């Protein structure tokens, strides 16, 4: 057992890896007690330095080490703690490492391990180093070819990432399977499964006309409970094609759902591994909520194929780059599926009722997501463990998988969607994947792309203040005041933002934080409940704002305090604030019971109507 204290890793200390690992050919002789792994790496130096090639490894037995086919002399390498250093490599080299790991003795459930008599892997964040020697960091992206050999009776199913190249029964009674993933990926996305499994499959045609195979693998006896999972996977594939223009890039996509997988779910390229609880459904016992949860988590891991796999994070400080974006995509998928289910009713609704019902279905999903955010992430942001979406340091990467990284990270992505609109966000995301496909990048790179689209529609403006969302901890508070001028027939809405110093920020001696870029969607209601047409009074240097619907205006709060004056307001209006929860903030506005009741009865925005009802009911309770 380790008793030493883990060193603190700082984001500012990041240095690029000095080598490219162009390809990795891995051969596994699978045995629970001692699995031998032969890795052959094509390596090229990225600079003119003489720095050694550093390979990570934990609890590994080093058997053989070669460079360009020759056994390496002892003075050419050094093994220090959990790192293997190889000296004197030229511009190009072939490095061969033969090592052994002990899956049955691996109780960490990271790397390659045995559970329920089957082989599994879990490599995110730093588990691959328990399998073989390799630069186990997300910015080293490699094309993997994997050969698996195991006893054919005990392990009749041998799976890894990518496409199955060949499967052969060997003379000694073993089975051999060779897999090739043509797309470069970091080692944390490597996967291997071997054992006794059943499967269900379906061939579907992608939008470009390619036939691809979708497969669900389970423990024996559970395959009859995978109908919904397979249908959900196909819906996720179709949705990503239609909504974002992203197509499955492999010849097959596999899900393994077993009781013995210790994690929830993992997005390994082309071979997602799930705990069975997140996949299996029985019509006699599974609730509607469980069905939706299964659909959502399958969608989430599938969507990672692009937002996380094809474009991944440069270092673990950028974890929300993939998780925040994918949670947002998952939320939109679930909302669209709820809306689509309305359209599949046996008795179709009239068009105007259909649109209203589908908007209501999407609002239900938005309400669920906001409740989750407030229940988990707002509490995290208010406590001693509060940290930014992109932290500055860590000691243990496993502690990074928090509601802030996931749920708040998704809200940060959603705010960019709100600021750019659906069309602008689509353009930005397409530009992001086109520019960075096959690369490991940062949160700043993502915002840079979105900012380039934002500027095209908003000359002279930028997203500099928006970047603070990645750097600051805590939940911002927005104080709201509304003044009506009956003589001038105007209403002035003032917003003031404040984000307290919390969590890790208190250790840095911060007293004041820069203002954020907060999109606040608002509407105004008349005393009879009807919506006021929104028109800003002429004013010099007016803060950014734009009409996003007939009854909704998006105000962009980029300073500590700003105000907007609306024209043609004859009577004191009732404000409808933060429609659709346009930013993860706490609104401070002293609404009367009468105002809440009016919004509950008449607010055209479903989320705002629900919010008013919750506040009013809470007061009475």
Description:
- This protein has 621 residues and is α+β, with helices and mostly antiparallel strands.
- The chain has nine helices and 32 strands.
- The strands form nine sheets. It has an eight-stranded mixed β-sheet with strand order 6-5-9-3-2-12-15-14, with no helix packed on it.
- α2 packs across α3.
- The longest helix is centred in the C-terminal third of the chain and has 34 residues, at 403-436.
- The protein is globular and about 90 Å long.
- The two termini are 52 Å apart.
Distance between the termini: 52 Å
Beta content comes to 25-35%
Outline the biggest β-sheet: 8 strands, mixed
Q: Tell me, what's the shape?
A: globular
If you average the pLDDT, what whole number results? 96
The poorly predicted ranges are: none
In which range does the helix fraction lie? 25-40%
The counted number of beta strands is 32
Rounded to an integer in angstroms, the radius of gyration calculated over CA atoms is 27 Å
Please state the structural category. alpha+beta
Number of helices: 9
Taking strands numbered 1, 2, ... along the chain, how are they ordered across the largest sheet?
Answer: 6-5-9-3-2-12-15-14
Kindly summarize this structure in a few lines.
Helices cover 27% and strands 29% of the residues. It is of the alpha+beta class.
Tag the structure with descriptive keywords.
621 residues; alpha+beta; 5-stranded mixed β-sheet; 9 helices; 32 strands; globular
